[in-house]
Write a structure and sequence with these properties.
single chain; 10 strands; 16% strand; alpha/beta; globular; six-stranded mixed beta sheet; 312 residues; 51% helix
Length: 312
């Protein structure tokens, strides 16, 4: 059984998806559709802009989705359909890519939702008051205990459980700085503040969740063609009403990536393709379960190789 997964923020690079757009008209059409939906040439920022501009949350989120969907359309051009997958999942904003890929939300609506999401997350906390930190070499339970101890009346939560030895803490800046020191004392190999613009996936994002609830209420969500493994549940969903409410919960909730991969493996998944920019998810998956075969699908050569393997 095969699953497709879609990357989240941090995977963005200048030039991503450009070769796909040049090689596949269907991939180019995705970038055109996203440009039209946003009323600006986001594709020009992606391919010719400055990395600082692309990395702005409001740009990175729709840009990464566009690149993932371009890769999906390129695969379709080579005869590989999204419905060939047993499950799809995405890391944080990647969940929106997964929903667009399965036809649950249109590409144009997804682009607009991610622009709202990026702006809402950025605006939820004044600049410099929130922070995130990566903790390496401690199990999830130990990181959760560190976050709880570091809070001291402030918000400090585990935002992402990425793999067995990597979690991310999010919350108020002072609390997250305390968590970094406590994690080191607890034996973490590394605990470092992340260069992010806001404290994602924690209770400080409540204002952003309210804005997303409003935006999602105005969008048509259909049943996905493939079950989507939701970040906050770490299990598959197909019901449009449930998908809508889980996307709201996801803004403040934990990205349960490790558990999501474990759930898919328990369901029989043996092969996972990372569709879009970068290779970060493939690395996490290998650390979660070495028996799962991984493949990155983000360039024309990788698309052709993936299609050949699917037909073999």
């Amino acid at each position: 059984m095969r699953a497709f997964v879609f990357p989240g923020q941090g995977a963005q690079t200048i030039g991503m998806g450009q070769a796909l757009a040049a090689a596949y008209p269907a991939a180019k059409a995705v970038f055109d559709e996203v440009d039209d939906a946003l009323g600006e040439k986001l594709s020009d920022i992606i391919w010719n802009g400055e990395i600082e501009t692309l990395t702005l949350t409001r740009n990175a989120q729709p840009a990464l989705m566009a690149t993932s969907l371009a890769a999906v359309k390129a695969l379709e051009s080579e005869g590989v359909s999204i419905s060939d997958a047993s499950f799809v999942a995405g890391h944080s904003l990647g969940e929106y890519s997964a929903l667009a890929a399965t036809g649950a939300i249109s590409i144009a609506d997804t682009a607009r939702l991610l622009r709202v999401r990026g702006d809402a997350m950025q605006d939820a906390v004044p600049q410099g008051e929130g922070a995130m930190a990566a903790v390496l070499g401690l199990e999830f339970e130990a990181v959760a205990a560190v976050a709880q101890k570091a809070a001291q009346g402030e918000v400090c939560q585990v935002a992402n459980e990425n793999d067995p030895s990597q979690s991310v803490v999010s919350g108020g800046k002072n609390a997250v700085e305390r968590a970094v020191e406590l994690a080191k004392e607890a034996g973490a190999k590394r605990a470092v503040m992340l260069p992010v613009s806001a404290p994602f996936h924690c209770a400080l994002m409540v204002p952003a969740a309210a804005k997303m609830a409003q935006a999602l209420s105005e969008v048509d969500i259909k049943e996905p063609s493939v079950p989507v493994v939701a970040n906050v549940l770490a299990s598959a969903v197909t019901n449009p009403s449930l998908i809508r409410s889980l996307l709201v919960d996801q803004v403040t909730g934990r990205v349960r990536w490790r558990t999501s991969i474990q759930w898919m493996v328990a369901e029989g998944v043996t092969e996972i393709w990372e569709v879009g920019a970068g290779k970060a998810l493939s690395g996490m998956i290998r650390r979660i379960n070495r028996d799962v075969a991984t493949r990155t699908v983000g360039t024309p050569d990788e698309v052709k190789a993936a299609a050949d393997s699917a037909k073999a």
